[in-house]
Amino acid sequence: MAQHTTAVLEAPTKKSDRAMNGSTENLRQKRSDSPKLLGMTIWLMAIGAGTVVADAAEAGDPQLLAEHLYNAANRPVMVELEASQVGNLSLALIDADAVQIDEQVKVRAGRIDLAEQFPALWEIHRTSYLQLLIDDEPVGSALVLQPMLSRMVPITTQGPVRPGGSITTRIDGWYDELHPPPLEISLPSEVPPKTDSGDATNREAASGDEAPKPTTDQPPRLLSGLRIYPERDVILRTSKGDIRLAMRPDHAPNTVWNFLELCKGGFYDGVTFHRIVPYLRSGEPFVIQSGDPTGTGNGGPGYWLPIEPSELAHDFGVISMARDLPPDSAGSQFFICLSRAGTAALDGHYCAFGYAVSGSEAIQTIASVELDDVARGIAVNPPVIQTAQLVPAPSRTPGIGRPDRPLFAQSYTIDPRPPRVPR
């Protein structure tokens, strides 16, 4: 089957099978007097929470772990704190911008009910982080507290017609699944169809569009509970170097979870970058794409992933989900952006869920490989993801956040350009 293109331009695309739900077994940690058994228990619980720890926890290290991966709303939320260090222990509940949501609380080692300690816990409707501090210094990775909310559904309209006559799909807005808009509002709006200039990468057709926003004046989304797990980064160890990715579950929580689960299960090990588009005809760097075990652009994990209204801007080093024409057709294929200028038109139509904090040289090297088929972005020797490894994320300091920065915040530019004809 030929590779499809999507939405308002030839953005990263994929084809996969119908949706099916997966499940993750949760393990509850029991305290142990033996340091060796304690380390193994912590390791097993981290696996059950959907993460892989680089090394089994050392007995002397402080550990903060949720007893359950899924926690129903308005009930106790128990975490277990194991710490042998001398010092004042405290917990900070902060948002993705490092702003404290509630007052820090002093704690002791043992079982802690977060719902009791943080009165604002069940009022949070966006992913937050629980950070352990010893003498006011952050220690270890934070726990991700992801609210399980009713789904925001995309409102779509017909986009421009691509060469060959296929129709693209645009996302023009969002609504809560529990509060659908009147039928006449949800129908496609009457807008003149945009013509295709003949360029298979019709980015210019959408360059002036703003990212769609959720509809206003809606009741609060239904909160079912919290999914809680240790924060993890992903290191893509590729044949051209390592790329470290920080996740943004505050923008796309379920997309992040799906990606972490695929990485943990070895899905990406040995998978190639099957599509490389170093430049558009306009001269702006575009994307490198991977995540298809078949290497054809048509493969996936065997299910479709509902799209989320991510507000994370596509920029250099940002990772986003590729999809087919239907907005909910993502699965495992992803792309990494090569520039803000080349990928800004993807905002709101594709689900960005993280960004690279290191690996700019590897990204540029992958984008610069020799192409066998420039029109389709097929490399002579496609770069390979050797492993996709989950590693502990750095601690988050209240008021400051992570110690690293996204690559796009480091004013990175691609220069010199690869000596070949762009798309």
Structural features, described:
- 11% of the residues lie in helices and 29% in strands.
- The relative contact order is 0.18.
- The protein is globular.
- Among the domains are: 35-149, S-adenosyl-L-methionine-dependent methyltransferases, CATH 2.20.130; 232-410, Beta Barrel (Cyclophilin).
- The protein has helices spanning 35-48, 114-117, 183-186, 253-264, 340-343, 360-367, and strands at 63-66, 70-72, 78-82, 89-95, 105-107, 110-113, 128-134, 137-138, 143-149, 152-161, 167-176, 223-230, 232-238, 241-247, 271-272, 275-277, 287-290, 318-321, 334-337, 352-358, 371-373, 378-379, 384-392.
- The two termini are 22 Å apart.
- The chain has six helices and 23 strands.
- Residues 1-9, 15-59 and 185-208 have low confidence and may be disordered.
- The strands form five sheets. It has a nine-stranded antiparallel sheet with strand order 15-23-13-14-20-18-19-17-16.
- It is mainly beta.
